[in-house]
Amino acid sequence: MTRVFSGIKPTGPVQLGNLLGALRHWVADQDDADTIFCVVDLHALTVPQDPSELRTRTLELAQLLLAIGIDPERSTLFVQSHVPEHAELSWILECTAAFGELRRMTQFKDKSTDAEFVSAGLFTYPALMAADILLYDTDRVPVGDDQRQHLELARDLAMRFNHRYGNTFVVPEAAIAKVGARVMDLQHPTRKMSKSEDSPQGTILVLDDLATVAKKIRRAVTDTDTDVRFDIVEKPGVSNLLSILSACTGESPEALAGNYARYGDLKTACAEAVVETLRPVQERFAEYNADPAGTAAILARGAARAREIAGPVLSRARTNLGLLETGPT
Ligand code: AQP
């Protein structure tokens, strides 16, 4: 059976781009793959975090994943720091990656420019992401378009390691959706919507009050003319709304463009579609949120299952590298 792995960082409240670009595909993947999903809390540490907020966000992110339809009977759902194999393989892969290769990562350039404090972890984080994926003999990784370069690096590291030390890792494929793979900020439609970006009016949070969601969409930046057309370069604002509507309805953005003569009508339709997508998620989230002990138990079972898979893969890497095995005491 195909093995699917993906993760999400508890760096802020989940936004619509996370949902449309990645999370809804995770849910669908449960039908035909062995699925493993992870709240990647170690990745959140690349920027300073408030400890109590990080703890709350990690638990609530797991609850949100359950609310969107991740089924713990069919998927392995766990928190990255509960499985220490991730950190160990990350070091091995940092030593497999070249400095220049990491320096070329565009997300590092974006996130380090103008940052007050740039941690070494922000630089090496793609090696940890590669470790997350390679630890599970992953075949397919459903991610948004912004992760394409990191996925390519994970593949390169797997191939380099296999070439140097013998066949150890499965080389994964990225699975990037055609629609919704890059949801843009509603106020700045040439930059991606992001959970830790300071753009409250441009970012739709999955747990935003539904009236606020509709208001943000109605106030989205469009363009000066009135033509409803799917053209990402010339009309980024309108095209973003068409892409969002398309991801929620399943119709193509080009076909949807023909249905609306005015921006106002497109915004109304988009707001309705997003609100109806979020409503059931919010209702289920409230149920999981009322039972933190239940969520903790699900995560503990998930971590135990994850370790059963990750342990032997890490042992394979250690042996092939030539690390001395521990002898009997
Ligand atoms: N705007 C987006 N459109 C489509 N997909 C997106 N993803 C993120 N933003 C968009 C996808 O969501 C998954 C989880 O993302 P992540 O938490 O690992 O980190 P990220 O990609 O860096 O997302 P954010 O929201 O922008 O977080 P911050 O602000 O903390 O960096 C990934 O599959 C991602 O592609």
Describe the structure.
With 329 residues, the protein is mostly helical. Helix content is 53%, strand content 7%. The protein has 13 helices and five strands. It has helices spanning 16-29, 41-44, 51-68, 85-94, 99-103, 106-112, 120-134, 148-165, 210-218, 236-249, 253-257, 263-289, 292-321, and strands spanning 3-8, 34-39, 75-79, 140-142, 173-175. The longest helix is centred in the last third of the chain and has 30 residues, at 292-321. It is globular. The two termini are 39 Å apart. The relative contact order is 0.15. The structure holds adenosine-5'-tetraphosphate (AQP). Adenosine-5'-tetraphosphate binds next to helix 1.
Q: Uncertain regions: pLDDT < 50 for 5+ in a row?
A: none
* Quaternary assembly: single chain
- Quickly give the structural class: mainly alpha
- Helix run count: 13
Q: Number of folding domains?
A: 2
Mean pLDDT: 95
Helix content: 40-55%
Small molecules in complex: adenosine-5'-tetraphosphate
CATH class of the largest domain: Alpha Beta
Question: If strands are numbered along the chain, what order do they take across the biggest sheet?
Answer: 1-2-3
What's the CATH topology name of the largest domain? Rossmann fold
Write the CATH architecture name of the largest domain.
Answer: 3-Layer(aba) Sandwich
Distance between the termini: 39 Å
- How many DSSP-defined strands? 5
Can you tell me the CATH superfamily of the largest domain? HUPs
Strand content: 5-15%
Principal-axis shape equals: globular
C-alpha Rg (nearest Å): 21 Å
SSE order: EHEHHEHHHHEHEHHHHH
